[in-house]
Amino acid sequence: METWNLLEYAAWGVSALLGLYMVIDWLKVDSTYSEEVLTSSREGELEALTEEHKG
Amino acid sequence: MADIDITSQTMDGMGPHGTKVGLLRVLGPAHVWALGVGIVLVGEYMGWNFAVGKGGAYAALIACWVAGILYTCVAMIDSEVTSTVAAAGGQYTQAKHIVGPLMAFNVGLYLVFAYTMLEAANAITAGYLFSVVATMTGYEGTLDQRPFIILVIMFLAWLNYRGVLATLTFNLVITAIAFVAILVLFLSTSGIVGDGIMQHAALFEGHELPYGWIGVLAAMHFGLWYYLGIEGTTQAAEEVRSPARALPFGTLAGIMTLLIAATLTWYICSGVLPWEYLGDGVNGAVAPLFSTAQLAGSTGLVWLLGFGTLFATLASANGCINDASRAWFAMGRDKYLPGWFGAVHPRYRTPYRSIIFLVPIALIFALGAPLDQVITFSILSGLLEYTFMPLNIILFRKKWPMGSIKRGYEHPFHPLPAIALLAICATTFFAVFLGYGTQLVAMIGFYIVVSLWFHFWRYRFVNRGAQFTMPWPKPQGY
């Protein structure tokens, strides 16, 4: 079997592992934290505050 | 307000509106530069040369500079508006604040489609590059490109999932290498260092404008390719430490870098490759900078430009994942889409659900759709977005005149850039219509249908009051 055939299998395997990592972490986070916390992000005060905290 | 520190590492993203987990403010101007240039630079490595096929080398240069004016206008307008509307979602959030919900919904979709399609196109290209490397290293079979296409998408999605700082630092490194590779190729082939191999006069003679001025017009479609995506810098707005400084600086430095890279690319390639070969991006010069390096006769240059091509492709896909997920996340957060997408990972501080949701969509397009159709859909969505920008800045200046609101950057000569941008967009729409009329009509039909769906159904779920949380004065006239 040539190197490139092995690389093909390696690419399939690493892709599957990365996908699995994301899905497992996603499910873990969703079951650990409440929906209210996870979706609490709001666009906020930005520049004005950044400027204030320069001083 | 003084007790809220949005630059805090421990309380990051926590504002007065109940944010418990927000995006992380860790980026600087260099990351903004890397995001914008990273998305675009692949267009210098491949794609722009179709403009040569449409109208010859000079037509490609005219398209390069006219599109350069278009994108300079885009960069200036974006820098002003986004240094004020500094929130994830970029142009979607601008439209929400300045124009209205229906425009915002459309712009959000333009962004997600433009970036996801571009990501898919980049993954297809990366798969092709792996097969070229396999052939170059003596592999005699036919390489299955699919695992490499999937690996590119999965790896970059994973990187984006794990955090924005690592993602855009990675982009900074590989984009810088890809840009330096173009500079090195220019120095090596133009005669500045060693013997030059440029043959502009001989190659252009008798082929100045092979299809006349209509060819120049047709070349405009692919002229966009030199810069398509620089407006993506705005998606980093909620994750930069200082939006008012980092966004204008990173975006304007980005467009200057691209103007240099685009002009050098044209000069290098058109001085070495005959226009018929250069203009055929399918059977001729697929990656013209790489082809030029091969003709330069230096193994070092071939490897450098080979890595440059691969890095530019990866940087583009990486930036696209970042931008598409931020736009999707911002729309979810405002309930323009299901609010479920508006979640932020409590540890990595990334819009993790949006990143994961867009992975299978990118995979479907990367594995199941032809490259030219994917690219065309991306360009057309981008063009619709650029058409929105002049209207956006004119309304912005009218509703919040100078002095009424703090701006991180004020672009000069208003409304000339807006008018120039509108005129060039109209010209480019005509140029696209010449080559891809059916796709253009189909796509506009698609956006009309989804607009109707939004107006008659989805809008009832939108957070109408809660979506506006910036401390802005009331617009003039309201």
Describe the structure.
The complex is a heterodimer of chains A (55) and B (478). Chain A has one domain (3-52). Chain A is built from three helices and no strands. Chain A has helices at residues 3-32, 35-38, 47-52. Chain A is elongated, with a radius of gyration of 21 Å. The longest helix of chain B is centred in the last third of the chain and has 41 residues, at 416-456. The two termini of chain B are 25 Å apart. Chain B is an all-alpha fold and 478 residues long. Chain B is 66% helix and 0% strand. Chain B has 17 helices and no strands. Chain B has helices spanning 29-40, 42-45, 50-55, 57-82, 91-98, 101-136, 146-162, 164-189, 200-204, 212-223, 243-270, 275-278, 288-295, 299-333, 352-368, 371-399, 416-456. The interface between A and B is large, with 38 and 65 residues.
Q: Which terms would index this structure?
A:
A: mainly alpha; elongated; B: 478 residues; mainly alpha; Amino acid/polyamine transporter I
Brief synopsis:
The complex is a heterodimer of chains A (55) and B (478). By secondary structure, chain A is mainly α. Helices cover 73% and strands 0% of the residues of chain A.
**pLDDT averaged over residues of chain A:** 83
Number of domains of chain B: 1
Shape of chain A: elongated
CATH architectural label of chain B: Up-down Bundle
Please name the fourth-level CATH homologous superfamily of chain B: Amino acid/polyamine transporter I
Largest sheet of chain B: none
Portion in helices of chain B: 55-70%
